[in-house]
Amino acid sequence: MRRDSESIKRTLEAHTAPAASELVHVEEDGAVRCVCCGNRCLIAPGESGICRVRANVNGELRVPWNYVAGLHVDPIEKKPFFHALPGSEALSYGMLGCNLHCAFCQNWISSQTLRDPEAGASIHPTTADRLVRIAVAERTPIMVSTYNEPLITSDWSAAIFRKAKAHGILCGYVSNGHASPEVLAFLRPVMDLFKIDLKTFDPANYRSLGCELRSVLDTIERVYAMGFWTEIVTLVVPGFSDSEEQLRGIAKFIAGVSPDIPWHVTAFRPQYRSKDTAATMPADLDRAYETGKEAGLHFVYAGNLPGSVGDRESTFCPGCGARLIHRVGFRVRENRITDGACPDCGRSIPGVWEQRTTALHRAARS
Ligand code: SF4
Fold it and tell me: Which atom of ligand 1 is nearest to the CA of 61?
């Protein structure tokens, strides 16, 4: 249900807490600098940052806390993570707001809240403890912040993930990657998985969304070097990100960080402010897939068009070519990975294949 901006603003103001000290710098004249994402907003008293959900109230940065705008149990393949406990379910939650403004956003009703008068979803008050209790009760081995941009609500996600990890739950973000070094360092002790959109390789196109290409490339390099399990997604939008030059640039960049990083090339459907843009065709995904393989990437996946992309949703061993995980859409039909390796040639396959701790297992068995 959509609500007017003033009423959403008042509701959100009632669900805030002080920012984590790692994510804010106190400046002169009562201003604060938020360092929770790559925008690094300088915010005067009474103002909010570019995301509109972090605000300076009397010299204190107040940030989103204790609510969700969406909460679902989804297949982990839907995020998409293909190398993190395949076939598992993830408790997925989202809040409101974003630090970018993409014309093709699939979740604009929640992400463009307080920026687009047409946007704005209802929220549901909750707590970190309650979310973790739901994950344990639902036996989801993964929790993911998704639907809107998770970076801008990292203070509360860190509080949730800290509690979730005590139960052995893997925690992750589905993010646009416009991060700051500070927020990555803040998240690393409590977070395992990072899915990052690399939306285009054209700096001007990225600027039209609200950030610099370099910011996202830096995040990918940092996140991988810091040891987060990293997967990259490119929504292949005709006329925006589908040129040979761009796809080759993206694939080469990822391969330069590591050829073991999975690259998902996914199909766009006309929506939000891109209703006049053509939908991605299977042949476009085929071309992107081949570009990734030619660049030397070991794991390329064609997504969002199940049944039209052959077996390009499945995982194949880069050593012997054997099919290791057979997927159709978000469903895993077979997983042959054994002890993190190909059972045919023994090659190690990068990913998170086993849940590491035991408390959730105990809860599941009881
Ligand atoms: S999260 Fe990003 S956009 Fe929002 S206030 Fe902080 S620096 Fe600005």
Answer: 5
Average pLDDT over residues 227-233: 98
Cα gap 67→95, rounded to integer Å: 7
Query: Which domains, and CATH codes, for the chain?
Result: 5-64 (no CATH), 67-335 (3.20.20.70)
Ligand 1 atom nearest to CA at 52: 4
Rounded to the nearest integer, the mean pLDDT of the chain is 94
- List Cβ neighbours of 104 (8 Å cut-off, separation of 6 or more): 235, 237, 240, 268, 271, 272, 273, 274, 277
Residue in the block written with tokens 């030397």: 296
pLDDT 10s digits, 143-159: 999 999 999 999 999 99
* Residues having CB within 6 Å of any atom of ligand 1: 34, 36-37, 39-41, 49-51, 54, 99, 152
Tokens of 201: 């390789």
Give the pLDDT confidence of 79-131 residue by residue, as tens digits: 999 999 999 999 999 999 999 999 988 888 888 888 888 887 789 999 999 99
Give the whole-angstrom CA distance, residue 260 versus residue 323. Answer: 16
> Which residue is closest in CA terms to ligand 1's atom 4?
51
Query: Residue 331 C-alpha to ligand 1 middle, in angstroms?
Result: 36
